[in-house]
Design goal:
This protein has two helices and no strands. The chain has 114 residues and is mainly alpha-helical. It has one domain.
């Protein structure tokens, strides 16, 4: 039916409109803040990626020398040592459990190609 007190109803309506306007302003401020914060985070992450790529290129140059040295000198010596231990474990049964424990009798499946 009809409202008996029209002044109270218009006061409630204007109060609700003020609350809705206040909520809209608050939502707009929050959305703008979210855009600013996410933009700042993206810029920060982009700079970190840039620095990480620069560090990686420097490390690749340093690692290239170490890797080449390993493949030329240290790698073959280590392979020779492991082969000698493998042969020793075949001739000395006391050393066989140690060789089995550390997998010296197994043929490596992921050895680097030469």
């Amino acid at each position: 039916m009809e409202d008996l007190n029209p002044l109270a109803s218009s006061a409630d309506t204007s109060d609700l409109r003020e609350q809705v306007a206040s909520l809209r302003k608050t939502l707009f401020v929050l959305l703008v803040s979210l855009v600013v914060i996410s933009g700042t985070l993206n810029i920060f992450l982009w700079r970190q990626v840039h620095y990480a790529r620069a560090d990686l290129s420097g490390l690749r140059q340093q690692a290239g020398g170490v890797l080449a040295d390993y493949q030329q000198t240290t790698g073959p010596k280590m392979d020779d040592f492991v082969n000698k231990l493998r042969d020793y474990s075949k001739t000395h049964p006391d050393f066989a459990p140690i060789a089995n424990k550390y997998g010296l009798n197994q043929i490596p499946t992921n050895a680097p190609k030469k």
